[in-house]
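Observation: inputs received (chain + uridine-diphosphate-N-acetylglucosamine).
Thought: call the complex predictor directly.
Action: predict_structure
Action Input:
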Amino acid sequence: MDRIRIVGGEKLNGTIPISGAKNATLPLMIASLLTEDKLVLENVPRLADVIQLQRILGNHGVDVMIAGKRAGADANAGRTIELSAATIADTTAPYELVSTMRASFWVIAPLVARMGIAKVSMPGGCAIGTRPVDLLIMALEKLGAEIEIEGGYVIARAPNGLRGGEIKFPKVTVSGTHTALMAAVLARGTTVIDNAAQEPEVGDVADCLNKMGAKVSGIGTSRLVVEGVARLNGARHTVLPDRIETGTYAMAVAMTGGDVLLQNARPELLQAALDVIAQSGATVTTTNEGIRITRNGAGIKPVDVTTAPFPGFPTDLQAQLMALMTRAEGTSHITETIFENRFMHVQELARLGARIQLDGMRATIEGVKKLKGAPVMATDLRASVSLVIAALAAEGETIVNRVYHLDRGFEKLEEKLGRCGARIERISG
Ligand SMILES: CC(=O)N[C@H]1[C@@H](OP(=O)(O)OP(=O)(O)OC[C@H]2O[C@@H](n3ccc(=O)[nH]c3=O)[C@H](O)[C@@H]2O)O[C@H](CO)[C@@H](O)[C@@H]1O
Ligand SMILES: C=C(OP(=O)(O)O)C(=O)O
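Observation:
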């Protein structure tokens, strides 16, 4: 199993190119199931999750080509992928494939919308809470699907097709909104999705669906209106930049000090996080090329932050911010409101010398003068990268175990940080 070795203490200086967003790429790939024509996606990050989803879609009969080559021939070949679901070979998504990644459950919506039936294993994904799918099921039922749960599978049936309906989510859910959207685009009549997630990745998927001939309005707001159409066509779409990768590297620079341009990053995708980074004492500047983060000399200031759905501070940056606050000059508070068990990084950060107390969903972080390297274990995607951030500022060597978590969502992490002066390497095997 690969590990990452970091020797802390170096400032970061240089340029980090920001990849396409994982959390947009996955539902965009799944949207290919909605049409017989070719969907071409550009700026696709080469990540373990993307490769796993290629396998899952392949199982349904989707032909996936990467920059002109067949999927699997050269996983690192290109950032343009072509997905062609001319025929759907299989409407079942088996446990072995779905259990590793939560987003793969979302195939349920396009499959039932196009084929009238889908049988999908209950999902896996990051261990950050119970992560139920009741609201996804509710959305499908509102559009006329009949749902049965059997042997760990959700079976959705709509032999006569889905019909438009009113969906009001009792809480903001990204997965629920993706599911509702992908089901509604091929339903007969109008669907209204209230309290829809406004996360930029949802907007990106809705934009792509419209390029495919869907009629979605209200994009970027909490009320989406979808006029169903009989069929969708192919399209070409460029995945938006990854705001979580952007925020992660911004916090890494705020942690180590230095001066880094986050190339292709778009500030409007993470304004709440950039505001917090600025409050912490780093300078955030928007340039034509992206976002520049600098911290030279000034100490890290404590902050008080609560995670919230977009446009609030994202839960996917909570662990990284906590790592940054371990070195703040004073006491910080971070409250997690989205996932009930997203504090797995706390005990690992403690191995490096962090002082963090948990009281339910609220963490109190007392900044320390020094962190010291240690062996640590990655527990989930964002928790793992928080350990990298802490290690970059820790004295001596840190070994991060279970790096496969990082590989799910951070493309070329060692290379991107290494080019900016970090002492970081992957130890294979
Ligand atoms: C692949 C992907 O895009 N993952 C992101 C997505 O996850 P994901 O789409 O799974 O997160 P949701 O927005 O759906 O979940 C938000 C909250 O709603 C709850 N809930 C959700 C569905 C449901 O049927 N019932 C229910 O109670 C969840 O347990 C959670 O407490 O959005 C999260 C919140 O921004 C991010 O942290 C994840 O990185
Ligand atoms: C939690 C995440 O992913 P997933 O929803 O796939 O578990 C994430 O991207 O931070």
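Thought: report the result.
Final Answer: The pocket of phosphoenolpyruvate (ligand 2) is lined by residues 23, 101-103, 125-126, 128, 316, 381-382, 409 (CB under 6 Å). The chain has two domains: 3-17+241-427, 25-238.
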